[in-house]
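ARCHIVE RECORD
Type: protein–small molecule complex
Small molecule: zinc ion
Source of inputs: curated submission
Record status: active
Notes field left blank by submitter.
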Amino acid sequence: MIPQRYEWTTDDFVAGALCLELANTVGDHSKTRDVERLTDWDTLLKWAVAAKVLRVAEARELRKAGDHDPSSAQQALQALLKFREVLFKIVSALAADRAPVQDDLDKVEATILGAVRSAHLVRQGEGFDWTIGSIDAPLKMPLFRVALSALRLLQGKELPYLRECQRCSWVFVDRSKSHGRRWCRADACGNRARVARHYHAKSS
Ligand SMILES: [Zn+2]
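STRUCTURE (tokenized, with ligand):
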């Protein structure tokens, strides 16, 4: 993976689900997934605040925990990145109407089980939902919150509207009226595709 220093803005969060926002933390403009934006624990925490996985105060605590035990923080980051890539494989398969690999589903299931074991049922509007508050292993808080998001996505009614960008590997829930959204961002990949078409038309 090629590390990339990156400042997140609201324009980066186009997926419609936290777990898909995590899948979109690679920075390349193709399907290679070889540009890594989550390069270290601190960067992960910055992303988690920008993505609303963590509150600012929670990120501050986790930063302290990482300073106190850097090797455990590094392990937690690696676990998150592994989960991201396995989840991406599943989502990418579903977006293409292919069956996910069972081994990948087993891995995601194991992480979700760990998350649910650390979660509490908390009243959310009309019903209850699994919520990760302060847990025994706080370094796992980002991973477990994203895992619960994956659980909701996999159980939810929006699964048929999962899409993968036609140019890069970013994934999203297509909530457009026509369900015909093709790009992660029209002003990024959509624009690049238009420029490429124009170039090919000129040179042929
Ligand atoms: Zn894209």
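CURATOR ANNOTATION: The mean pLDDT is 94.
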